[in-house]
């Protein structure tokens, strides 16, 4: 595959009418190495954040050996790419057939659950042909924790309440080789304290249930860097998590796991879009709510942007975007900071779209197409380069390039 130096070179070569996804394998590899080497336990890549075979392979090559999968399609995809990877089926609600195929066909031994019914389903689906119960299961009980310190809540859908956890932990202990507790503090956790309050809840659950716990899985939520959201260094998260994990009443051989999605792939992709029309401070571009900019539309996420024209001379001003579909909701409030003289026919690069961006493009209204190329320059921001601006000095760093 041809590798371009940067987005401007792609525009010069292709003058693309449709959006172009730019992938940076070196950025994903750097994130993978960082977690593999610095997280004080095992790092499972949460595949849903970007389920492309390419990034799964890149992360494996960088030392990430475990993958958090949430559907049988993700199980099949990762197993197809990586015959030797360890897959963990961490969606607490699965069909019996999905569990059976994962276990018997793809060698998946790790499952999460948050009800007795799901436990019974897993036990039944993993029996051998002669009816014997599986003896090699790792079962993790998902605990509900607060999302108060995160930008995107995951607190209401999954997880058993602390008050009800003891009987489920005790029942699960009867059916597994290794018992774990997992949780998710919500995505883009802006402070390590998010994990402290969750681990305190884990402590209470263990004490109440009086069971031996072999795995503590702190889930995802590790942040990336966006305009107006500059998190502390990931090393701070790792240190706080490690310290509180070590103080839990668990056996000395217990394992610490995490499930980063966003943090491993946010820097992997950006997107080139074309301005098709300008109306005041609104730009009509060729990607939007049904494309890679789902979060920009639906939760008003701000992504860093850069105009790709050399001849724009005016200062930056605030713009909103409209996407290409005929739906009024295809609107991204921003603000996105671009030169005041930008106009129809100009190209923009939108950064930090590797997580929950490029992966979420749909074909709605005929606008799904996008070319995909590799580029070798740096992402617009990085948590892994050691040059991040101290958030106390700037609370709104649009570009670190
Ligand atoms: C989505 C998800 C993750 C990844 O979350 P990030 O915030 O992207 O790190 C991890 N674990 C589970 C169970 C998830 O649903």
Automatic annotation (TrEMBL):
Active site, per annotation: 326
Domain Orn/DAP/Arg decarboxylase 2 C-terminal: 281-350
Listed cofactors: pyridoxal 5'-phosphate
GO MF term set: ornithine decarboxylase activity
Claim: Flavoprotein is one of the keywords in the record: no
Enzyme class: lyase
GO biological process: putrescine biosynthetic process from arginine, via ornithine
Protein name per Swiss-Prot or TrEMBL: ornithine decarboxylase
Organism field: Altericroceibacterium indicum
